[in-house]
Amino acid sequence: MSVIQLAVDGIVYGSIIVLGAVGLSLVYSIGDFPNFAHGDLMVAGAYGGLVANLGLTQIGLQPTSVFSPELLVTIVAGLAIGIVVAVATHYLVFKPLDSGPIALLITSFGVALIYRSLIWMGFGSSARSYNFPRSGPIGSIRDATGLAVTNRMLVIVLATAVVVTTLHFVLQYSMLGKKMRAAADNGDLARISGIRPRETVLTMWVGGGALAAMGGVFLGLHTLIRPLMGFDILLLIFAAVILGGIGSIYGAMLGGFAIGLAHEMTPVIPGVGSEYGAAVAFVIMIIILLVRPGGILGEETT
Amino acid sequence: MSSFELTYDGANLQKENTVLEVAGLKKSFGGLVVTDDVSLAIESGSITGMIGPNGAGKSTLFNQISGFYDPDDGTVEVNGTDVTGKQPNKIVQEGLLRTFQTPRRLEKMTVREAMLVGAQSQLGESILPLWISGAEVTREERANLERAMELLEFFEIDHLATEPTTSLSGGQMKLLALARALMAEPDILLLDEPVAGINPTLVNQIAGFIEELNQEQGYTFFIIEHDIEFLMGLAEEVIVLNQGRVLLEGTPETVQSDERVINAYLGDM
Amino acid sequence: MNVTIPKTDHELGSTSVVLLGLIVLLGLAILTGALTVSYATYLIALSGMYVLLALGLNVQWGYGGIINFAVVAFWGLGAYVAALATARTSPLGLEWHPLFALVVAIIFSVIAAILVGLPAIRLRADYLAIATLGFSEIFRLLVANETHITAGMAGLAGIPSVLEDLPFDTVTTNLLVVAVAGALVFLFLRRIHRSPWGRVMQIIKADEDLAESLGKNAFSFKMQTFVLGCVIMTIAGVYYAHFIGYVDPTDLDPLETFFVWVAVILGGSGSNRGAVVGAFILVAVLEGTRFLTDFSIFAALSTGPLRLLIVGVLIVLIMRFKPEGLYPPRDELIWPKSQTDTEGQS
């Protein structure tokens, strides 16, 4: 496979990681703990989308292409579930705990197991897929460039671009966005002064849950929907967040694409196969943790 | 034993009596200079105070002396040994011990356990001797326990020996920190605001303790304190730090009446 | 209020009540035919292995506050070294004596712990958690893919059983070995914990800067606990390989790490007894879920997710309502012999 093709795949996978990473970074900096349930939150969103998707099929709507209103419904349903689950978890588990980051970290792992087991119980362990026609690579792109790009890949990248751009404007120009950025940038300050306004925390979970769910739906769209896929992608998302710098939302975007590319382009490294895609991403993450724990866009900390 | 002529004067220092010598310490954080060319020397057996408005760089100075920050420039010598840039634990082994402004509660530790940690170079802190020299560890531990109880008695908190540290009041924590520091029998003790936020009775009591330790046992103290009054009765020499620089030094009386000091304090508040 | 409130005999009593209760349950299960004897002994041996793992993690997290999310990797290191060195099917074809393999596994474990610890142990807690999880996954991927060395996903079978040289049947040997190993590790840890060494670890856990300010080399102490804990995990892994006789990369699922964490926090971080009790309860939960599905209300559920659900709920509930665990550490970390004839003791 050509290097450019690998890069294209990397951008697609990176898009999914970006969606996960931005939400995780928000929660990490404002909520002040690494949420190990974030991967499974994505899966919850993916299954939320699946329910809507199957529902549509049930009432006789057969999407002819992935570019369809059905996809929108699927995504919106996923988002709704992601938000509900994230906010409910906040109120039921994290908020009452009111403890240090380490206790929250450990608890979040328990939460991850609860999400995972409930999804597994509800939907079984076998892989599912959304009811959209699978089409091969888009002919015109293949003819023009020799690259295999499917409709699904196009949807994922375009939708992520829209989300990222929207997020950029929200963060730059809305009052709430500015508050979020301030809270995220100043994780330390927030920690010391104990200032975690209710509104910011709630927005963090809504935003984090929505983005996670969208990432989850796209992950399911890109491959298949499996109840255990959350953990596989969780550490990649952490890698993206750490690479970009915890609390830096733009860093998470950059880190997401970088990790996606590293993950897919591993075969470029002589003697290393694609089976080590994740390992390469983790090595990058560990190196960043050791030499520049603030991330490439974060503040340098010692 | 006490010296009233501790003006810093580079070459004229009596090296053999100088327990701490700081020369040209510089530290800045992201362009903000916090300590700028600070030099001072402290003689064995003295009590030296340091005052200065908030943000003058007092704690940063302590952190550089005790090894928690690496200075950008300058040197720190303890008992004639250059300790600049060394790890905090190595500097303790040279004889310099410091306390913190806000003593943090030690979960799941009793007062006497916390005291015992203060003792230096304990054989039982290595795993192997716990197996091959049990008897010696026992002897050492007994001796340390005894000393811990003596110190707790001296500070009149021996009744709390088996209480969890989490049940102590702020003042009692300050006393514990002081007592624990003495477990190490340091040549010089750096106290970072030893009486901040505690009641006046206890403040006087602590002043009494420090004075007694200095006069009767010859302990050397270097004390940061906001409460100028506290230092006035105690220190022979007071150094005023302002905006990272030594503004002046002298006897408490001279310092108190100096216009620059008054301005520095008023200017900050 | 004295911290050493609970009397020793009372505490020992309640620990043994829990263990006894589990054993009685096991006995009942055998008598009623719900369990076979061989399954029951398997359960006890498995519990013994988790006891070792929990003791190892307790050294790191309970004593020193070091987060290690690579428990399964250090366990797997032991299991794989044992398997590769002794199994008939090993691509390396060594077929060493298991005791020799054990020594080699421990040496590897020390080296690996130092290699991971040297850079990572200085990281703040949350970074260390993520980094160690990263290490764990890298190890798993290597084992799964370096087929020419590890046999990859095919796994390694034909690992000789535990100490075949002993004049007992396999089941007895299994139980005996894990009981002896568990007891030795427990006694070793108890001695080093209630000592100046354990005390320094405690203060490092509470406040690392304070420990440094009192002349303690925090990094050195943390490395010691990290290596020690990892070696204990590796011993558990070596035992597992010989006990089960087969390993493959799916054994290296990070989920195992979190099972061990549950045992430690449920038992009570910092408490050796807690780790022991926690490990037994963990196995009761993990294996007990098999039987829950016999009851009609759970009939529709498969064991896998039910087990995850219970473990997940356990974590959340413990952290919320009993973060100190069932058996929080009770002893003052003072060398016991030094107190036998001085005044003011509990």
Account of the 3D structure:
The complex is a heterotrimer of chains A (302), B (269) and C (346). Helices cover 74% and strands 0% of the residues of chain A. In chain A, helix 3 packs across helix 4 (101-123). Chain A has one domain (3-226). Chain A has 302 residues and is mainly alpha-helical. Chain B folds into 2 domains: 10-105 and 169-268, 3-Layer(aba) Sandwich (Rossmann fold), CATH 3.40.50.300; 108-167, no CATH class. In chain B, helix 3 (111-117) runs parallel beside helix 6 (170-183) and helix 5 packs across helix 6 (170-183). The longest helix of chain B is centred in the middle third of the chain and has 21 residues, at 134-154. The two termini of chain B are 38 Å apart. The model of chain B is unreliable at 1-15 (pLDDT under 50). Chain C has helices spanning 8-31, 37-64, 71-86, 98-120, 125-145, 147-150, 170-193, 196-206, 208-213, 218-244, 255-267, 272-292, 303-321. In chain C, helix 4 (98-120) runs antiparallel to helix 10 and helix 8 (196-206) packs across helix 10 (218-244). Chain C is globular and about 55 Å long. Residues 1-10 and 342-346 of chain C have low confidence and may be disordered. Chains in contact: A-C, B-C. Chains B and C meet through helix 2, helix 3, helix 4 and helix 5 of B and helix 8, helix 9 and helix 10 of C. Chain B: Pfam families: ABC_tran (PF00005), BCA_ABC_TP_C (PF12399). Chain B: InterPro entries: AAA+_ATPase, ABC_AA/LPS_Transport, ABC_transporter-like_ATP-bd, ABC_transporter-like_CS, BCA_ABC_TP_C, P-loop_NTPase. Chain B: One of its GO terms (biological process) is amino acid transport.
Question: Gist?
Answer:
Chain A has 302 residues and is mostly helical.
H and E order of chain B: EEEHEEHEHHHHEHEHEEHH
Spans of chain A of at least 5 consecutive residues whose pLDDT stays below 50 are none
Provide a count of the helices of chain B.
Answer: 10
Query: What is the multimeric organization of the chains shown?
Result: heterotrimer
Averaged pLDDT of chain A, please?
87
Annotate the secondary structure layout.
The complex is a heterotrimer of chains A (302), B (269) and C (346).
Chain A: H1 3-30, H2 38-58, H3 69-97, H4 101-123, H5 139-145, H6 151-173, H7 175-185, H8 187-193, H9 198-222, H10 229-244, H11 249-265, H12 277-291
Chain B: E1 18-29, E2 32-43, E3 47-51, H1 58-65, E4 73-78, E5 81-82, H2 88-93, E6 96-98, H3 111-117, H4 127-132, H5 134-154, H6 170-183, E7 188-192, H7 200-217, E8 220-224, H8 228-232, E9 237-242, E10 245-250, H9 252-257, H10 259-268
Parallel strand pairs in B: 3-8, 3-9, 6-7, 7-8
Antiparallel strand pairs in B: 1-2, 1-4, 4-5, 9-10
Chain C: H1 8-31, H2 37-64, H3 71-86, H4 98-120, H5 125-145, H6 147-150, H7 170-193, H8 196-206, H9 208-213, H10 218-244, H11 255-267, H12 272-292, H13 303-321
Helix pairs in contact in C: 1-12, 2-7, 2-10, 2-11, 2-12, 3-4, 3-5, 3-10, 4-10, 8-10, 11-12, 11-13, 12-13
